[in-house]
Backbone:
């Protein structure tokens, strides 16, 4: 221990000097600098178009996100086989987010700063989107978020190809009220998307003259619904409206049957229970329940038939099923292709295309019937899709029978239940007092 | 006034009285040995004095203040210091660190965060190390010490504390003959300046060090006196050699 | 019957028993005496394999057991009554005795009848919780349990320690009977020299972890006792 | 009933049902905790991979069912046996080298849980699997004010059976005698011919087997996926710790208590909030009884 | 006999070299992503540091270090979120609107003022650790019971962060739109500045703790770890020392929480996940819990593996990590630092005659 104090002082002095010296060199970096980054083109002529693919391939989210990852690769293969985009091959940079929010945040910055991709496809949960968003926005980059989400965000750097909370339930609630009765019980997972979806659903419920008996949320990953079923049994609703996700959704349907509820008396109308969930729980637990989604595997169109056949017979189709989340992800790749072509044409050269430019040209892009398995969709000025949600009833084979399809495309509106906040437009959120707010999360 | 006084001290588990109405007075500067066959209640008595076990009845006072129900560390701060039967040292620390830890001028954690090199502690540690034959072993980790050295180290820790009274529970247990003798020498240097209460079995050692001897048997007081008196005492002889046949205690 | 050759035994890194050698013949009763803390109990534990580490050889009928785990030593015919009796207080008397049967060669799973004959009190109170027994009863139980292992060699560690005087005598008689009538070879660790002399056929005095003296019991003189045992 | 109110009002029938649900929660937690309790009580090993044994039990059931078409009721005992065998192997390879280092076993078994989860994920795949339960269990019945789901009754029954069998094994059999002897005093047991190592292997295997049994049933009420074990481990620990180390009865009472407290809280508020209060209560409880409900004050250090 | 590993001078020299090298890294790395990644590692290293203090030196296996980290991270997230709010136009974060709040809750009010917010982010978790420590250690809860109590407490906070959505945004977490503003500057998380801020904190804490461990206090917490009863019978209040070291470790983890949000601009309940807190223990165990630098290096290694090796061995990573961990617990209880210690010990024995000072 001899001399420890002295050497301590010495070493801290030395460190001070080092830190001081390096700080002088580093001070300019206090400002956000990306000057040199912007001077380099994102895509080089004759090179490839690098895109990031950031989904969880391991961990609890892997169940769904593996499919997303596979279908992105499938779409890219398909595009490349058909000659790529403007003659350039698309090169996916595939990264596993390991179902860890910290990894999403770390890897999105790796994709942007190190791999220099021009856009990223990624995420399935709102939490992962929120973890990626600050980096994407501060670098003015582009994220394709290809699944349903709650809205209430107005950013200039995210393109969504899934349905918004206001699109999903618009037809489903009146349909259920008409066919089963007025009284409904809401069950959801305890986070923002179900809560927002339920708020929207309440609007439609009021319009349809329905009555809300109760609203319960189960923790994410929670698997015990006995307490909730106890409350449901007491209030005797005509149907259950579910926004329960993931493992919990499977437990919900299983316990529904085990608790002795009858699907023909009190079905579950869900925004989440698609083909993949049904397969995981076993078709006997899903049969008879309803789902509202823009896409079903059983959709009877030539484009979808082709999509299903090609996908399932490709090396990516080992899962044996297609579902709405996957199809929305598939669309995002074609949305990217269209945007890139449009931007390059506008800018005059592929080297001038920037991520932000892709976003700026996205409004108005249409994905036509012959490409989109769910049928024609197009982007509005906020980069959300106009789409037709459909209602399916699950059969004993795990496939859905489409019982109703929207006649018109339903407009996306991320702020529909927050009119006092303003209106989301191309350049940001227009508040009532005339200000325009950018990057509203 | 006695430095340490026990009055009617009792420890019972259910019906079994391990220490039974035991009285003891130790005066300043005295070296007292506490003897007795296995199970006589010697270690329990030390435990009760230091607060390691909860007392059932009786009063313990140190220099007139009643400490019967104080928490352990407060008793130590009041001047009691003990050595355990199975030597308890900080095995992962060096001998020097062990002794430094035992130098307890300050016990407040926050205050000790700012104590780095305490000259007084250093001097004391070196002085004690010399006393317990560990001066050359200061840098060695305690778990590499021999058994005897470990015992010395713990004796040293107790000495470093400079308490008013040192309670030694079998300080020579497991030592070789030579080590035991050295230990006796150490104890003899403490006489007069320190007050000690020593629990021991090794009679050679007791002869070497004791002023007065108290003998316990089955939790009770049996005899007290100089070593010669005790050696002549028939009761003592019986409990040591004769076992059961003619038990004399009331 | 039992031979120890240059046995050194450690707790942790501390040698408690140093270079101990002796031989015990069939039918002997060896009284091990010495003051507290000189290694008598360690000797007993060493034979049972309950110390951290030993060197040297321990032979039971020419089989070296020094590398065997404790339970195999028990199965090789050593019955052990530890210091403090080692009764399992949460067990009933019956369960305590049954514990002994795990080391039997014949795999009998009942309380051996011969054991019950020896201890009528236990036979009458088989379902009593062992924790409620008095010291003397508990000692009987510990012996009964060791006998249930069907041992050839019995190690008794201070069987009279902490027992009421009137019972001590019974225990002492019992120990002698086990040796003389039932023909068991016995190692008796004892502080009570009178009893050690009365019971033993041979003796062994220990001091500071080593053997200080040994021989036939007649050779255990007062001089030896004074030197090694008394105050 | 008003919506969005945090507190649910008291009403007799649902409250009675909430009490019943508490019983059902208790049986789930108890069956998940029983193996843990035995292993911890006997060997002093905190097995962080216990939840993964539950997961293995669920996968065993799934595999037996899907690959060999074994009926569910037969899969349950098989899950017990197979996971017990895995437990025995793990004890011999890893756990036995770490006795006397309880903190290290805790960490090593955590590492083991990572390996098991990832191993299963690699071998069987990350997607959830589905265990089918027999049709007669997928129903419920009405009894006075109570609604009983047959599957819950089944779990409850199996839990009680497992508890009784465990108790019987421990109290009435020779193996149980060995286990209890080793628990009380390893040295004395060894000195009377009991091979403590073998007892530990058996105990660990039995504890793992109970986890496998639990997994077989949990697979049928929810889903089978690699991370499913993590969902049980904290609750199972609390049941053991609150009950008191080495006390079967303690685990029973504490599972009952915790299950009921949780269910009643969940009835008046919601599940997440109930969990928060439950955990907080346990921490406060342990402040005053660190040794748990049914154990003497010796397990502190 | 002299093992250079134990030579205080060599130790300080090693610390000096270590931090100097770390300080120079941004001058050599052009890529802002890598700088940011390394800054994250620094923060994770700080967590390992706190584990090393409380577990390695204090002997208290806490599986709840994430509590301090998470609470502080939320405090910082709130601070940065409020920096992006505008008192007139956008007085409350938008997620609160979703949860039917129309006014800023009182809990959030202090965070309008960034220095107060950061101070609270550090003080609240520290006080919480002091309180929890007092509850546990006065009752003489020890060993695995501490592990389980902290685990239960962590789970409780986790469900709280989830459930109190009007205040915490629940599962989604808080993602402040702008980087931290400090004294008029904007601290770009991808700049070398952010890295150096994190490094300065890590250096200060490490050297501070290193010095603390050389103090009497450091000696006594180790004594308490070795044998609490002996320490008690030397007159120390064991509980007071355990509470102190537990609280200090909470403070270190809190600093990490604050820096983490500065660097990633995001906080969610995952900061309070059980697995995250246990992983911190893994880092410290891999590097060596009895060595501050060792623990930090352990965090670097494991996370570096996860970042760089993880992409190559996508599926096997957790398998490798779990296996590695088992091997380390089984064969290297003191981690890599322990390995170095024994290697240097052998080297030292051979070189004892020639070189007393040991290598630097």
Residues:
């Amino acid at each position: 221990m001899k001399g420890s104090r002295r050497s301590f002082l010495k070493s801290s002095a030395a460190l001070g000097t080092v830190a001081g010296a390096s700080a002088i060199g580093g001070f300019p970096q206090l400002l956000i600098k990306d000057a040199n980054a912007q001077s380099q083109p994102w895509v080089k002529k004759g090179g490839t178009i690098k895109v990031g693919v950031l989904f969880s391939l391991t961990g609890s989210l892997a169940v769904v996100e593996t499919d997303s990852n596979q279908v992105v690769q499938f779409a890219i293969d398909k595009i490349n086989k058909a000659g790529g985009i403007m003659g350039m091959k698309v090169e996916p940079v595939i990264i596993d987010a390991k179902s860890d929010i910290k990894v999403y945040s770390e890897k999105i910055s790796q994709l942007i700063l190190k791999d220099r991709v021009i856009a990223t496809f990624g995420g399935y949960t709102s939490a992962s989107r929120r973890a990626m968003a600050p980096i994407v926005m501060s670098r003015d980059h582009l994220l394709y978020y290809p699944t349903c989400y709650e809205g209430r965000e107005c950013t200039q750097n995210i393109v969504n190809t899934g349905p918004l909370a206001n699109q999903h339930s618009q037809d489903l609630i009146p349909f259920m009220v008409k066919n089963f009765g007025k009284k409904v019980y809401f069950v959801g997972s305890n986070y923002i998307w179900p809560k927002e979806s339920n708020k929207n659903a309440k609007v439609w419920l009021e319009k349809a003259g329905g009555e809300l008996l109760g609203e319960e949320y189960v923790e994410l990953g929670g698997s015990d619904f006995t307490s909730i079923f106890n409350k449901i049994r007491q209030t005797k609703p005509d149907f259950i409206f579910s926004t329960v996700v993931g493992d919990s959704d499977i437990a919900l349907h299983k316990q529904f049957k085990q608790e002795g509820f009858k699907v023909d008396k009190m079905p579950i109308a869900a925004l989440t229970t698609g083909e993949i969930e049904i397969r995981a729980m076993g078709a006997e637990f899903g049969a008879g329940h309803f789902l509202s989604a823009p896409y079903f595997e059983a959709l009877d169109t030539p484009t979808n038939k082709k999509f299903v056949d090609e996908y399932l017979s490709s090396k990516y189709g080992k899962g044996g099923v297609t579902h709405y989340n996957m199809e929305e992800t598939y669309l995002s790749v074609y949305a990217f292709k269209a945007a890139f072509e449009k931007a390059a044409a506008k800018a005059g050269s592929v080297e001038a295309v920037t991520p932000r430019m892709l976003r700026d040209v996205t409004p108005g892009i249409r994905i036509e019937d012959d490409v989109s398995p769910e049928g024609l969709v197009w982007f509005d000025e906020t980069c959300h899709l106009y789409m037709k949600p459909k209602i399916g009833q699950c059969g004993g084979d795990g496939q859905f029978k489409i019982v109703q399809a929207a006649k018109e495309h339903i407009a996306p509106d991320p702020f529909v239940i927050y009119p006092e906040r303003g209106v989301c437009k191309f350049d940001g959120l227009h508040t009532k007092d005339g200000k325009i707010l950018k990057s509203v999360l | 006034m006695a430095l340490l006084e026990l009055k009617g001290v009792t420890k019972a588990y259910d019906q079994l009285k391990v220490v039974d109405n035991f009285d003891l007075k130790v005066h300043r500067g005295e070296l007292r040995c506490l003897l007795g066959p296995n199970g006589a209640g010697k270690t329990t008595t030390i435990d009760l004095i230091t607060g390691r076990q909860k007392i059932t009845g009786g009063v313990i006072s140190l220099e007139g203040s009643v400490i019967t129900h104080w928490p352990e560390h407060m008793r130590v701060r009041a001047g009691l210091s003990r050595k355990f039967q199975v030597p308890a040292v900080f095995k992962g620390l060096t001998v020097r660190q062990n002794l430094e830890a035992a130098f307890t001028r300050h016990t407040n954690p926050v205050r000790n965060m700012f104590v780095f090199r305490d000259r007084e502690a250093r001097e004391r540690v070196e002085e004690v190390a010399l006393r317990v034959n560990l001066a050359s072993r200061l840098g060695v980790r305690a778990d590499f010490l021999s058994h005897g050295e470990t015992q010395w180290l713990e004796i040293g820790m107790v000495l470093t504390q400079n308490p008013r009274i040192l309670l030694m529970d079998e300080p020579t247990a497991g030592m070789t003959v030579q080590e035991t003798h050295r230990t006796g020498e150490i104890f003899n240097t403490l006489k007069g300046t320190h007050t000690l209460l020593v629990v021991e079995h090794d009679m050679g050692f007791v002869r070497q060090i004791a002023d007065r001897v108290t003998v316990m048997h089955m939790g009770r007081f049996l005899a007290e006196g100089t070593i010669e008196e005790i050696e002549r005492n028939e009761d003592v002889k019986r409990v040591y050699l004769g076992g059961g046949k003619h038990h004399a205690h009331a | 019957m039992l031979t120890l050759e240059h046995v050194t035994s450690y707790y942790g890194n501390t040698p408690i028993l140093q270079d101990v050698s002796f031989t015990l013949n069939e039918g002997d009763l060896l009284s091990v005496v010495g003051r507290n803390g000189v290694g008598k109990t360690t000797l007993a534990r060493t034979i049972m394999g309950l110390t951290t580490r030993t060197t040297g050889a321990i032979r039971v009928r020419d089989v070296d057991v020094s590398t065997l785990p404790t339970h195999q030593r028990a199965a090789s015919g050593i019955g052990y009554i530890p210091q403090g009796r080692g009764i399992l207080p949460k067990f009933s008397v019956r369960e305590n005795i049954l514990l002994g049967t795990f080391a039997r060669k014949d795999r009998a799973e009942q309380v051996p009848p011969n054991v019950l004959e020896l201890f009528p009190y236990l036979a009458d109170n088989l379902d009593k919780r062992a924790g409620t027994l008095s010291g003397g009863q508990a000692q009987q139980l510990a012996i009964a349990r060791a006998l249930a292992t069907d041992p050839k060699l019995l190690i008794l560690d201070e069987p009279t320690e902490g027992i009421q005087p009137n019972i001590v005598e019974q225990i002492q008689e019992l120990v002698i009977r086990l040796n003389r009538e039932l023909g068991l070879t016995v190692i008796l660790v004892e502080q009570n020299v009178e009893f050690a002399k009365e019971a033993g056929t041979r003796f062994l005095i220990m001091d500071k972890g080593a053997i200080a003296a040994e021989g036939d019991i007649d050779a255990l003189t007062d001089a030896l006792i004074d030197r090694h045992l008394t105050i | 009933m008003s919506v969005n109110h945090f507190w649910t009002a008291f009403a007799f029938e649902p409250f009675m049902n909430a009490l019943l649900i508490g019983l059902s929660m208790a049986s789930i937690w108890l069956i998940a905790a029983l193996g843990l309790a035995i292993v911890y009580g006997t060997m002093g090993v905190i097995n962080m991979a216990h939840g993964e044994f539950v997961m293995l039990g669920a996968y065993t059931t799934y595999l037996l069912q899907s690959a060999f078409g074994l009926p569910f009721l037969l899969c349950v005992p098989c899950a017990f046996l197979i996971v017990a065998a895995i437990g025995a192997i793990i004890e011999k390879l890893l756990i036995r080298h770490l006795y006397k280092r309880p903190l290290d076993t805790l960490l090593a078994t955590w590492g083991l849980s990572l390996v098991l989860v990832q191993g299963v994920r690699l071998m069987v795949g990350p997607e959830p699997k589905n265990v089918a339960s027999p049709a007669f269990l997928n129903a419920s019945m009405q009894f006075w004010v109570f609604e009983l789901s047959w599957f819950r009754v089944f779990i409850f029954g199996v839990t009680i059976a497992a508890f009784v069998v465990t108790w019987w094994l421990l109290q009435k059999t020779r193996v149980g005698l060995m286990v209890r002897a080793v628990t009380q005093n390893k040295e004395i047991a060894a000195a009377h011919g009991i091979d403590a190592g073998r007892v530990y292997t058996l105990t660990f295997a039995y504890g793992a087997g109970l986890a496998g049994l639990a997994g077989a049933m949990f697979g049928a009420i929810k889903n089978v996926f690699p991370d499913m074990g993590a969902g049980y481990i904290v609750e199972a620990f609390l049941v053991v710790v609150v009950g008191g180390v080495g006390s079967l009865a303690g685990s029973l009472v504490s599972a009952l208590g915790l299950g009921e407290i949780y269910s009643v809280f969940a009835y008046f508020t919601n599940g997440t909030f109930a969990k928060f209060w439950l955990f907080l209560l346990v921490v406060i409880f342990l402040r005053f009884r660190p040794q748990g409900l049914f154990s003497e004050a010796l397990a502190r250090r | 006999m002299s093992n250079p590993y134990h030579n205080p001078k060599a130790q300080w020299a090693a610390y000096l070299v270590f931090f100097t090298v770390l300080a120079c890294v941004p001058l050599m790395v052009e890529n802002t992503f890598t700088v940011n990644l390394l800054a994250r590692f620094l923060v994770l290293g700080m967590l390992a540091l706190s584990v090393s203090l409380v577990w390695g030196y204090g002997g208290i296996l806490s599986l709840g270090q994430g509590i301090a980290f998470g609470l502080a991270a939320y405090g910082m997230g709130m601070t940065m979120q409020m920096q992006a709010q505008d008192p007139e136009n956008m007085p409350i974060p938008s997620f609160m609107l979703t949860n039917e709040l129309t006014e800023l809750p009182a809990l959030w009010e202090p965070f309008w003022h960034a220095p107060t917010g950061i101070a609270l982010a550090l003080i609240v978790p520290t006080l919480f650790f002091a309180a929890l420590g007092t509850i546990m250690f006065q009752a003489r809860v020890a060993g695995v019971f501490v592990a389980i109590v902290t685990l239960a407490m962590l789970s409780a906070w986790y469900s709280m962060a989830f459930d109190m959505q009007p205040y915490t945004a629940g599962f989604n977490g808080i993602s402040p739109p702008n980087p931290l503003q400090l004294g008029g500057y904007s601290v770009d998380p991808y700049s070398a500045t952010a890295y150096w801020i994190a490094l300065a904190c890590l250096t200060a804490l490490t050297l501070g703790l290193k010095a603390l461990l050389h103090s009497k206090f450091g000696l006594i917490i180790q004594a308490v770890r070795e044998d609490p009863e002996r320490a008690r019978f030397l007159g120390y209040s064991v509980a007071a020392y355990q509470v102190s070291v537990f609280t200090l470790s909470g403070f270190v983890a809190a600093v990490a929480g604050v820096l983490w949000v500065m660097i990633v601009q995001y906080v969610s309940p995952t900061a309070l996940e059980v697995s995250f807190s246990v992983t911190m223990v893994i880092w410290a165990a891999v590097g060596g819990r009895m060595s501050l630098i060792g623990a930090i290096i352990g965090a670097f290694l494991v996370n570096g593996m996860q970042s760089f090796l993880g992409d190559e061995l996508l599926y096997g990573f957790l398998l490798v990590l779990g296996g590695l961990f088992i091997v380390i617990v089984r064969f290297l209880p003191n981690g890599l630092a322990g390995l170095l210690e024994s290697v240097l010990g052998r080297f030292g024995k051979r070189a004892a005659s020639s070189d007393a000072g040991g290598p630097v």
